Amino acid sequence: MSERRERAGILETLRDRYATYGFLSRIYREELTGPLLREMAGSASLQDAPAPDSEGLTMIQEFAGGLQRADLEEVEWDLAAEYAGLFLSGAHSVSPYESVYTSRVMQEARDEVLKIYMGEGLEVSQGCNEPEDHLAIELELMRRLCQKTIDSMEQDDLRTALRCLERQEQFLARHLQAWVPRFCADMEKAARSGFYKGIAKVTGEFLALDKETIRELIEAVKDGISSGAPPPPPLSHDRRFAPG
């Protein structure tokens, strides 16, 4: 395999992760909008491509398949109401905040993640009024770190790419994996639509798989550093969960 193809394999994995973290952050940050619904309704990948061994993505594909026959404005209103009931208020609401699930003082949890955000140049105040331990913001941090890793790989700066991957591994272990699996289980029980039930499953599936993905990427980049050559591709199968 040529060095160009080896590098391309790692970049493809990184870009898939970037897309998935961005998609999930958007979904938890705000209600599903009409433009995104229309995008999903016309998505060739959602309509035709098989899900990568993901029950959650299969559910989202089934939801997207029904959009072509649905009144999208009505679907948008229904999902907006469900979003509010799930995450904002309601008898069956679930809390998308780390501090709620880790039984920590909210200020302590917020201060810890805020320090990490500031170190990575993530300005939480822009476009988001939520506390810093909100799931959408934690996912956005991972998206930003994925982008930094992509930029470093494109510049053949493997040591910076390695540091970015190690930060992702640490944040995933210390924060997201400490509470999101329980949150996803609660969300799946509370959700009414196939879309939000699918999102709950996809989130849990993706984060569990990403732990393995990051470790494989770290080992591949380390091999590249030690050999002085571009690292080999660590993955040979689809790890993309983001529709589109």
Automatic annotation (TrEMBL):
InterPro entries: DMSO/NO3_reduct_chaperone, TorD-like_sf, TorD/DmsD_chaperones
Domain of life according to the entry: Bacteria
Keywords: Chaperone
Annotated coiled-coil segments of the chain: none
SUPFAM superfamilies, sorted: TorD-like (SSF89155)
Annotated stretches, region: Disordered: 224-244
Entry-linked Pfam families: Nitrate_red_del (PF02613)
Identification of the protein by name: Molecular chaperone TorD family protein
Species whose genome carries this gene: Tectimicrobiota bacterium
